Amino acid sequence: MLESLGLDMDALAVYRAMFEYPQAEVKQLTERLGWPEERVRTAMDALARLSLLRPSSDVRGAARAVNPEVAFAAMIEAREAEIFERQRELQASRNAVARMVQDYGELRSSQRSGGTEQLIGLDEVRAKIESLTRSARHELVSLVPSGSISAEGIKASRPVNRELLGRGVRMRTVYLASMQNNTATSAHIRWLADLGCEVRTRPALPIRMMIVDRELALVPLDPEEVNSGAMLLRGSGATAALYALFEYIWDIATPWGERPEKSDDGLTGQEREVLRLLGEGHTDEVVARKLGVSVRTCRRITAELSTRLGAVSRFQAGLRAAQEGWLTSRS
């Protein structure tokens, strides 16, 4: 019990011995306690720091134990003052936190407009994603238009996803088909599928989004710069439209692990997306990012398609692809 006052077992044993044998010096204390002299002196130094020893009036250089009624009363009083100050600091911290929470709530309210909430920065978006995932009761669906998931992202999402699927929440996700080319990401998706997550793929996806229980939808503020922030949408109108988009993509997506079939014109879904995006005037860099592949892979696909179409330019390739009906087939 006295350890909270800074008095350890050795110091307490020496203090008691000095009371039982008031005239004992260091040598006698070592004999009675059966300790080395250094251990006794270390304990006496600790007692001196706690003001539990005083110089002897009778023997020069010797020390005597201070009356415990006086010594411990002073120690307890000092300890109580320390605790009181600590409690005062904690109360001040509690008040500061309360003000911060109030300010945060006012800020969040100012960022909300009707059925929307604006989230600024990647950290805030990630925190909201974790919160939404944990709050899901029935279903969570999402589109993930990126070519890979970082090791940090995989590590952070696993406990949340395991808990979600363990509660029986239905989880459906559409990834880019190119994710199957990334070893770490592919292994993570197989892990999700083993837990019960339903996974499909598409060559390209229009937007990153997450929908929880058909009630809340999270979409990026800028689809081209997802790290800038996101918008949380509430209300049946907005979420219903996005959910319908998800269902359309889910219906035409390929189950994870299956090879997508080529259409009658011999094009893969990825090749058709390359033609469509090039026809919209996107650069190789933008097309590659949207498909989750390297720029080199994108240029190789473009060159192969141009050869098949007998085109000598990107513009001519797009024109001939449209004439052949390659851009209208659903795959």
From TrEMBL:
<dbReference type="InterPro" id="IPR000792">
    <property type="entry name" value="Tscrpt_reg_LuxR_C"/>
</dbReference>
<protein>
    <submittedName>
        <fullName>LuxR C-terminal-related transcriptional regulator</fullName>
    </submittedName>
</protein>
<dbReference type="InterPro" id="IPR051797">
    <property type="entry name" value="TrmB-like"/>
</dbReference>
<feature type="domain" description="HTH luxR-type">
    <location>
        <begin position="260"/>
        <end position="325"/>
    </location>
</feature>
<dbReference type="Pfam" id="PF00196">
    <property type="entry name" value="GerE"/>
</dbReference>
<dbReference type="InterPro" id="IPR036388">
    <property type="entry name" value="WH-like_DNA-bd_sf"/>
</dbReference>
<dbReference type="InterPro" id="IPR016032">
    <property type="entry name" value="Sig_transdc_resp-reg_C-effctor"/>
</dbReference>
